[in-house]
Write a structure and sequence with these properties.
Elements: H1 5-15, H2 24-38, H3 40-46, E1 59-60, H4 63-73, H5 77-80, E2 84-95, E3 100-109, E4 130-139, E5 142-151, H6 156-163, H7 172-196
Parallel strand pairs: 1-5
Antiparallel strand pairs: 2-3, 3-4, 4-5
Length: 201
C-alpha cells in the first residue's frame, strides 16, 4: 500500500492529535487505516469490516478504506453524498482486475453549498467548485464506495484517462467508447457548475 509523503505527514498529525474536532468515526477509520498500513496481520485479527456509521440503507463502505480515502484524497465517502446530483451522472464499466461491475459517479462539490473545509483541514477555495469522481459498486442494492477524489474542472479529463487506463486496454474501440461516455457525463457535471455560478447562457 503506497502513500505519498504529504499524506503520510497528514496521517502522523492525526495520530498525534494535532488535528482537532474530527468526527469520532472519522478518527476511528483513520486509525484503522494506520493499523493496516503498519501491520496487515494485526489489522486482520481485529476483523472490523463495518460499524454503525459505515453501513446504512443507502450505502456502505469499508471503514479502513474511508480512512485511506481521507488521508490520500482529503474527502470522506459520506461527504461525497453531499455533492450536487450525486448518483445521477454515472458510467458503468467492468473492472478487469476485480472482475466486477463498477460505476464512475461524477458530481459537483462546492463551498457555496457545503463547508469549504474538508475533514482534515484541506481548504479548496482555489478552483472552487470541483468535480468529485467516485468509484463504486452495487451490493445488495447499496452503493459500495471504493474511492472518491476531487479534481479541478480543468484537470478532470487528464485524470480520467490515467486513472482508467486499464479499462478496455486490449480493445481500442471499446476504450474510446468508454472514454467518450465518461466525457459526455463529465460535460453534464461541468454544466451544473456553470449554472451554479450563473455563467450558463
Amino acid at each position: 500500500m503506497e502513500i505519498s509523503k504529504p499524506s503520510f505527514a497528514q496521517l502522523i498529525k492525526v495520530l498525534n492529535g494535532e488535528i482537532k474536532s474530527l468526527d469520532p468515526f472519522i478518527l476511528l477509520d483513520i486509525r484503522l487505516f494506520a493499523l493496516r498500513f503498519y501491520s496487515k496481520e494485526k489489522f486482520d485479527q481485529l476483523s472490523i469490516n463495518s460499524h454503525v456509521d459505515s453501513s446504512v440503507d443507502l450505502y456502505e463502505f469499508s471503514p479502513f478504506k474511508n480512512g485511506q480515502n481521507l488521508i490520500k484524497h482529503g474527502i470522506s465517502f459520506k461527504q461525497t453524498l453531499k455533492c450536487e446530483d450525486f448518483g445521477c451522472l454515472a458510467v458503468d464499466y467492468h473492472d478487469p482486475k476485480q472482475d466486477e461491475k463498477r460505476s464512475i459517479i461524477f458530481s459537483v462539490y462546492s463551498s457555496k453549498h457545503h463547508n469549504s473545509i474538508l475533514p482534515l483541514g484541506v481548504d479548496f477555495h482555489e478552483s472552487d467548485p470541483k468535480i468529485c469522481m467516485t468509484i463504486a459498486t452495487n451490493r445488495l442494492n447499496k452503493i459500495r464506495f471504493i474511492s472518491s477524489r476531487l479534481f479541478k474542472i480543468d484537470d478532470c479529463r487528464k485524470h480520467l484517462k490515467s486513472t482508467f487506463r486499464d479499462i478496455h486496454a486490449e480493445n481500442k474501440d471499446a476504450r474510446e467508447k468508454f472514454i467518450n461516455s465518461c466525457n459526455s457525463i463529465l460535460d453534464k457535471a461541468i454544466e451544473i457548475t456553470r449554472q451554479d455560478d450563473g455563467s450558463s447562457t
